[in-house]
Amino acid sequence: MNMTQNEVHEQIGTPQGAPRNANPEGWFRRWLIPALAALAAVLVLSFGIRSRVRAETALRAVTDQMAVPSVSVVAPKRTAPATEIILPANIQPFISSPIYARTDGYLKKWYLDIGAHVKTGELLAVIQTPEVDEQLAQARSTLNTAQANLELAQITRNRYQSLLNKHAVAQQDVDNAVGTYTANKALVDADMANVRHYEALVSFEKVYAPFDGVITARNTDIGDLINSGSSTAPRTDLFDIAQTRTLRVYVNVPEEYSQSVKPGQTVAEIALAEFPQKTFPGRLVRTSEAINATTRTLLVEVDIDNPSGSLLPGSYAEVHLKIAALNSTYLLPVSTLIFRSDQLQVGTVRNGKVVVTEVTPGHDFGDEIEIVAGLKAEDRVVLNPPDSLVSGQDVTIVQAALPGDPQ
User: Fold this and answer.
1) How many CA atoms lie within 13 A of 295 on its CB side?
2) What pTM value is reported for the model?
């Protein structure tokens, strides 16, 4: 059973005398294992390099993203077609007049007191004027004397003119008669005017209401000395009368709204504290058409019908004026404003870049401000802009104030 070495070599096909290291199994073990180790090393190195490249790329992307600031934006809100402004005002009577005496004397009687509604021509009071009565009697007596002299002068003139036609008197006598008549006629005219003067003063003894209204004050009483006014004594104010069926309300409108206030077009409503949750319609009838240089306001008159007399003159009121808004007027939160040395500015975002825009402010509503120029409806305005915000800066919108805004 034992085989010789030559027989073994013959069975496996190895020529006799070949070298022992030519065995394939030895060659495989010698070269394949190092090749596999080298390949594994290359794979490990390649995987490590790719991981580092991927990490550096991600880090660079994160760094670039963090370098672009994130901002929140808001869309300008267009104001309503009609804007309501509320302004303080005082209600005044349509006509208000003090009633003064036109003659001197003592108050004999008054007939109406405060709160009385009077009609035009209604008797209010009577003044005793004994001195004026005596002066009227004297003036009438003087007139009677002058009229008697005038009648005598007229008879004499007619007689002399008749005798002159018969050449019975001289022309000089006729001229004297005519002159006497003319002079007496002038005296009669003067005395008649004097009588009418005292008759007017006597008529002023009775004080009448000059218009329909209500008596708001009675400033005298029976027996008081009444003075018609002179250089040394002031006039006596007997009554104050106000016409309250229609009331006037004067309002000072700020200059910025002056161009929108139009008589006959602007709607006005009046609100008073004593009538909660109720307003009274008014009519804007006229303006002063001039800006007050001190207050920078326009004086406006609003009339209110007051047939029931429920509104009292002198009351404090609030006037609600509904005026047309400007076409390019928008509202923005005050947190969007940029205050720098230049004009008031805001930051808008267009195509991912900031555009710092100058705007013109209008009315300040506290948390919001009106912008009358410099904005468009499609603009997106940066909220709480940083001091470093400049035009051309790249930004990322992280939150939009309106649904549908770019994210």
Assistant:
1) 10
2) 0.58
Q: How far apart, in whole angstroms, are the C-alpha atoms of residue 260 and residue 369?
A: 19
Is residue 30 classed as helix, strand or coil in its secondary structure?
helix
The alpha carbon of residue 108 and the mean position of all alpha carbons in its chain are separated, in whole angstroms, by 51
Q: How confident is the model at residue 63 (pLDDT cuts 50, 70, 90)?
A: low
CA dihedral sign of residues 363, 368, 374, 377: negative
Asked if 218 and 114 touch (Cβ cutoff 8 Å), the reply is yes
Hunting for tokens 């070495």 — which residue is that?
Answer: 5
DSSP 204: T
For 197-226, letters b (16+ CB in 10 Å) and e give ebeebbebbebebeebbbbbebebeeeeeb
**Burial class of residue 279, CB neighbours in 10 A (0-12, 13-18, 19+):** middle
Nearest Cα neighbor of 244 from 302, 312, 303 is 312
Dist. CA 338–CA 384, nearest whole Å: 9
Q: Which two tokens stand for residue 46?
A: 């390649």
- Cβ pair 184, 156 in contact under 8 A: no
- What tokens were used for 94? 């349509």
- HSE-CB for 43 with a 13 A CA cutoff: 6
Separation of alpha carbons 329 and 371, rounded Å: 6
Strand arrangement of the beta sheet that strand 105-110 belongs to: 206-208, 123-128, 105-110, 225-226
Looking at residue 86, the DSSP 8-state letter turns out to be E
How many beta carbons lie within 10 A of that of residue 376, not counting itself?
Answer: 10
Whole-angstrom CA distances from 291 to 83, 254, 263, 295, 318 are 21, 9, 16, 8, 21
| pLDDT (tens digit per residue) in 190-213 | 999 999 998 988 888 899 999 999
Angle between helices 171-203 and 130-165 (to 10 degrees): 160
**R_g of the chain computed on alpha carbons:** 55
Check if the beta carbon of residue 120 is closer than 8 Å to that of residue 147: no
**Residues 331, 371: contact at Cβ < 8 Å?**
yes
